[in-house]
Amino acid sequence: MFIETETTPNPATLKFLPGQQVMPSGTRDFASPEEAEASPLAQALFDTGEVTGVFFGTSFVSVTAAPGVSWSDLKPQVVAVLLDHFVSQAPLFAGGDASGFSVPPEADDGDLGDDAGTEDVVAQIKELIETRVRPAVANDGGDIRYRGFREGVVYLSMQGACSGCPSST
């Protein structure tokens, strides 16, 4: 098995492509070791002690290095963890099933809602995000989540490689 790596616009994050499906659909972002407890793979990546974020896409895993950590030191560790996981065909999530873990969820406490009477505009915004923005963001190792449309402003959250990236602000 060969795992490809790609740089992302975020210098702290690399995108790892195992050449097989990671998530059956959707994405999952792990911003802390506590969140990673749901996934043995994410937990193993955090256990290196040099990772601050893990993101699963349908065909990739993005890993964010801790400040001051060199990718030349961390990359072989990450590749070893990924190889162990995919060669052993271990489940991605502790329950063995990715259902219920997909992001964006249907409802979230971070959602701001939409102004009344903006349903048509919101539908167009969401369509643009799905057809134009999300594929480009996924190509860079991340995801985008719609949070709301209020007073003419679209609120979004960036995840994975795009969270905290200088290019996404």
Give a quick set of tags describing it.
single chain; 169 residues; alpha+beta; Ribosomal Protein S8, Chain: A, domain 1; 2 domains; 3-stranded mixed β-sheet; 8 strands; 27% helix; 25% strand
Short description:
Helix content is 27%, strand content 25%. The chain is an alpha+beta fold and 169 residues long. The model is unreliable at 102-107 (pLDDT under 50).
Question: How would you sum up this structure, described in words?
Answer:
This protein is of the alpha+beta class and 169 residues long. The protein folds into 2 domains: 4-88, Scaffold protein Nfu/NifU, N-terminal domain (Ribosomal Protein S8, Chain: A, domain 1), CATH 3.30.1370; 113-168. Helices cover 27% and strands 25% of the residues. The strands form 2 sheets. It has a 5-stranded antiparallel β-sheet with strand order 1-2-5-4-3, covered by helices on one side. It is elongated and about 50 Å long. Residues 102-107 have low confidence and may be disordered.
CATH secondary-structure class of the largest domain: Alpha Beta
Q: What is the straight-line distance between the termini?
A: 36 Å
pLDDT below 50 for ≥5 consecutive residues: which ranges? 102-107
Strands in their spatial order, largest beta sheet: 1-2-5-4-3
The figure for the number of domains is: 2
Helix content: 25-40%
Strand tally: 8
